[in-house]
Amino acid sequence: MTGLLNRGKLGSAAIALGMITAAFTTEAAADTYKWITFKPQGAGDAQAISTQWFIDEFKKRTGDEHEIEVYWGGSVAKTREIPDSLAAGVGDFGDIVTPYFPDKFPLNNAVGFFIPQPKSTIEISGLMEKWHETYPQFAEELARSNLKAVGFRPLESYGLLCTTPIRSAGDLKGKRIRTYGFAYPALVEALGATPVSVATSEAYEALERSILDCTPIGPALAHGWKYDEVAKYYIEIPLGASFGHLIAMNLDTYNGMDEKTRAIVDQLGKDYAKNYAGELDKTISAVRAGWPEKGVEVIQFPADELIAVIDDERIQNVRKEWIGRAEAAGVPSDEIVEELRF
């Protein structure tokens, strides 16, 4: 009888141990991926909100089998460090500010060479998705840095925020306007203004101290950076939505996912654009609604006066530079150029 009891106890212990082992095995099979970003967690803007949405959706759609932990506020890698950090596997997901790397990712920064252009945030996102599906060279450019684009986050449509009213091209003559990249300096010069290179973090003081007269920006970012405290004229000049950020992955991490999880990430990337654009629209509407109380005046700029300078040789040379890079990579540029034409 004692032997039977002992065998029963041993059997129960074995079952319990098996259950514990199974639980640990299941837990071990779950993956926690790292997302590295320069955005502060409490930013409360469309970028931060939509990032959290992606993370929550990933966990939900994988049935809580996998999750993403975010390292906010540049705690792991600063803005310009993220591509190399992702490539090295320091993170699995991350935000790449594409215009900061026009030489490293020229194809994926196509829109940065075509300012002004007429497309909105959601339209640019759709074009980037289409180009990646149509031209393998876009993905190959990133793959050379061990990266994979899984989503697109264009910036909002830009105008000019100025310290004095600008009602026509004539009012821009001699104005000092913040520029960066290739297209903006050429456009500012074509409009008769002076391009000035000033970091985003320094533009508030530059506007306040009249080092700058204007900066290209959208309402959400103007409010987020508090520029609208020191510059009270928002000029509705149709510069178009800039292509801002890639939601990128370490390519090895992406390829190492099982087929089901990869499919979830791919669909999330497509769904992300709509969520982000919706959050951005809500922010822009709220900012615009609050501008009268802050004393910000919105001024319509004659669109035809902007469009008239697009044929300027300086602007066209910037566009030709991208066309040359695209054709050297084997990408037929005609359709892309046409899609970005006014």
Automatic annotation (TrEMBL):
Q: Does the keyword Glycoprotein apply?
A: no
Signal peptide stretch:
1-28
Q: Which InterPro entries match?
A: DctP_fam, TRAP_DctP_sf
Keywords (alphabetical) are: Signal
Name the Pfam families for this protein. Answer: DctP (PF03480)
A GO BP term here is: transmembrane transport
**Name this polypeptide is given:** TRAP-type C4-dicarboxylate transport system substrate-binding protein
Organism of origin: Roseibium marinum
Species lineage: Bacteria, Pseudomonadati, Pseudomonadota, Alphaproteobacteria, Hyphomicrobiales
